[in-house]
Amino acid sequence: MRPRWFGVMAFVLLAACDTQAPPSTSPGPLLKQACGYFSWGLSVRAQCFRLTVDGRTLPVTRLYDGLRGHSREAVVVIAGGPGQGGQTSAESVAFWREWYQQSELEFDLILYDARGTAGASDFWRCKPYEQRALQIAAENLSVEDETAQLKMPLETCLQEYARRTVPEGSDSTAQYSTAKNVSDLVVLMRELGYTGYHLWGTSYGTRVALAAADTPAVKTLLLDSVYPFAKGRSDEWPRLLYESFDIHQRYYADTAGGDYSRQYQRFAEALRKRPLQFVLERWDGSGKVTFLLNPDRLASLHFSILYNEQLLNWYYEALSFSWPEEGASPLDLRSASVEVLSEAGISEPRNLRAAQKLFWVLEDFVTSAFDPAFSTLTFVSVECHDNETVPLVPVADAFSGSIALDIDWQRLEKLDACNSPLFASVEKIHDAPYSAKPSLVLAGELDPVTPAYWATELVEALDHAYAERVPGIGHAVLASDVCDWGDIQAFWATGALPESPLCDAPTNVD
Hints:
This protein is of the alpha/beta class. It has helices spanning 90-103, 127-136, 143-165, 178-192, 204-212, 236-255, 260-273, 295-304, 312-318, 338-343, 349-369, 376-386, 393-399, 409-415, 452-461, 485-494, and strands at residues 30-33, 44-53, 56-65, 73-78, 108-112, 196-202, 218-224, 276-281, 288-293, 331-333, 439-444, 465-470. Helix content is 38%, strand content 15%.
């Protein structure tokens, strides 16, 4: 799950498949294909497939123990977003192969790319939108102006997306919704033919898992950073943004011993007087981005940095950075080198380190914002079909006393892409019932976008569930490697809920 606003910023080992037959060899929409990877040997094997649904094909990869052979039950990994793809790419499968070997998983592991995401046949990148988004990153725009300038190219791209990817006679972009993702998952499970499935969802993937839980073959749910049916309406976003300041305030007081809001406001005011312009390297190797940091984009950085607790100390140190206020144009910082920073009048050692930390957290920020494996069009389509659009101003007014943010929520409400006629039909997922399947729910206490109290509320609505709040962790708890996989495997094997905590607080690394 990602923030719905803030425009642009809201936000190798290779392998090879073998030739063993899968458990189910009956003809159908799941067809085996070559993986195109180099061999790993016998310990971990891979098989690759293409699943055909509604005229589109989705890639599927199965990992299993080559010495043990196939298991009777399987774990299915459901990615977040909505819109996150690349789960079956060579790089991703290499990561999961390593994880599979280290975790000593007793079940086969199933990876797949959902419809509309990178890897699926209907994945499409709209160049006019993406090019304008990259241009905007270098301009000094408010979040409202940024959203307004992206509105037209986004709507044009969504219309073209529907024309390109929706079967003739079907209902527009309603082909991209949780209901459709669940339907695809059910077909995949049926075609693979295991006797039981354990659904492992992260972020938006937890919503798909919850919605598919009543499928008879589903045994358990592992829900990491949960996205319940009752959440996700447009008025969630002002509340989540203001609540993120409370998260920072608590964590900053515990780790840095200071007042986060005061430090944040000082930095924002300095940016208001003179923004900073950077040339940032995207960590995925896809090129450089010219990026202008102003107060509105600082708010986006403030929010998204909580996803990754390992960068928090860098971010807090970066907020101590100070720079010359004189000058009619933004301060141009082309690189994090000492020479370039010294030319810009930044020479004091502590201030140099703060400037470099700012570079590094911004590089992570833009790498995530322009992730080539993420589909903005699929994200918007699913979010707008799943969730109702309701007034923002009452919620924003209720929480705005915590900190002063110069955001015109009424204008953002009017600019919301979900107001498009393309999304006239809402799936009303908020009204969906929950399953009684055994559910293990994990939440990071620092998570700003699927906050820990969502997990607490969800467990109260489930009949057979265990929730754990993990201190010092942001979004996607299991990615932080602080949980006991032996206990999780015991849950998958028996369905019995844990009697003691599974996860430890992380050790902070500077």
